[in-house]
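Dear U.,

Please find below the material for section 3 of the report. The protein was modelled together with flavin-adenine dinucleotide; I have listed the sequence and SMILES used, followed by the predicted complex structure.
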Amino acid sequence: MTTPFPEFDLAALDPVLSEEQIALLRRFGEPHATTNGEVIWSAGERHPSLVVVLSGRVCVVDRSDGDDRIILEAGAGQFLGELNLLTGQIAWANCEVQESGEVLIVPSNRLRIAIATVPVLGDILVTTLSLRRKALRFAAGNTLTLIGPPTSQSLLRVAEFVDRNRIPFRWLAPDDPVALGLLGRTEANPYAHVWVIVRNQQALADPTPLRVAKALGLDLAIDQTTPADLIVVGAGPAGLSAAVYGASEGLSTIVVDNVAIGGQAGASSRIENYLGFPTGISGGDLAFLAEIQALKFGARVTVPNNAVALRRNEDLFELELEYGKTLRGRSVIVATGARYRTLGIPGEGRISGVFYAATELEARFCGSDPVVVVGGGNAAGQAAMFLSERCSSVHLVHRGDDLEAGMSQYLIARLKKSHNVVLKLGCTIEALEGSDQRLRGVTIQEADGPAEQVSTTGLFIMIGAEPCTGWLRGTVELDDKGFVLTGPDLPSPPGGRPRSGFATSEPGVFAVGDVRSGSVKRVASAVGEGSVVVQAVHRFLATTPITISRD
Ligand SMILES: Cc1cc2nc3c(=O)[nH]c(=O)nc-3n(C[C@H](O)[C@H](O)[C@H](O)COP(=O)(O)OP(=O)(O)OC[C@H]3O[C@@H](n4cnc5c(N)ncnc54)[C@H](O)[C@@H]3O)c2cc1C
């Protein structure tokens, strides 16, 4: 086989199924006699099928830019397909027959059942499909090309969306010869807009993440013919955990998120206090693995979908999504977490170089320039440490006089040891300076002391978050800060059994993770709550009428 992924183990990318595994898969698919040159699925098609080669040869070929590129070739016992079989994204390339023979075609809805119910198939298929996605991301080929200046905030939003959703992309400057070549074909002006080119064929001018999601087929990922047992709102650590436990325990489960999988944890470059990862794991990787695990157990994940209202309609809940879609479910877990706070100083929302996350993506914007981090919690400490490895200096600005109240000791010790981290305690950011809409410096004001101008191209604001519960007002009870009240914080139901610790004031609606009043704001506790709440969901469902899920 030829491969554009020399860095990856070919045997792992293109394994041969045993006869026993093929026999098991036959229960979920249909055999099909192939002819030379036949296209089994083509790029852009929604819901491509898994193709298992029984005889002959089949390949996946990218024909999007005239320079045809064979991505994968398979002979007898091998299979074609990628993670989009499970996520509902469009096919990135064509699946074509090179040498006639026979294949087994397993439609994506049947594949999900095979993976969820036959562990020996789940193991090999999920491992291979996710490894192929990793390889595609690594090659960052022609799937998605972002074209615009590195300072573009709107393109950064699209990059964050695709990066957090693990969709392969590359980012080119408008004067890059490849970008000029791509835009030349569509006669688009590279400097008038920022552009997103989908599979080298569709050019989107100044697109939002939602428009990109639509072009990738993500918007139609959920076809709901019967109500789900469980709708999880929010795909941060708490929501993904609830999805894994709900789906693995037999509940038909749908997860919706208005941005991407990972939530706040997805904005962290390295989480070091999560059990089982002694050297740390990036929030993005953790979320990706959790999503695969949820998909493996049969959960459906759809992004970006913003929940705008929740109401009860007899025995069902209706979750209203932005742009008019509604999901129906028998129970709901609210896991919408919290959204970063802004400083509220002039220019913050307009000037590029102001960030609320610190991952490789944001760090790339700053190169080795000096940067400034604001905040006194673990998120700020981690960001400062991460950036200190890439940037010439990091000023950590905190309005309190010490870090002990909000930051773990291990981080404080590392920050103090670091040669290029400057601690600015008892200080605030008073002003931003910029030119050409790009951040050039900030004014750091010492309480009752002098102000200092610091040159920087990156300001990382990590000053905590507010609950994402605007969409729930009037549906469940909230505390005075807007977090969802649960369990013992609510009055006992008259004469009824005590509530679950995660039950809200609306029976059948539960809340977990950072969005819950009184929760511990940590990845591990969010994951723990997401797993435990599923027992309460089972207890609630046992008391409500049964609907049979056919999705
Ligand atoms: C930069 C950073 C670093 C961190 N580092 C650590 C660490 O090292 N260790 C640690 O333990 N904790 C860390 N934390 C805290 C940890 O990430 C959070 O406690 C955890 O992510 C909370 O998980 P959650 O699922 O409850 O909520 P979130 O992670 O906030 O996820 C909620 C999700 O719901 C979505 N959502 C919100 N509203 C809607 C809506 N209306 N419709 C649909 N979807 C919606 C959001 O887009 C989001 O994806 C860090 C936080 C940040 C910001």
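For the text of the report, you could mention the following: The chain has a mean pLDDT of 89.

Regards,
Y.
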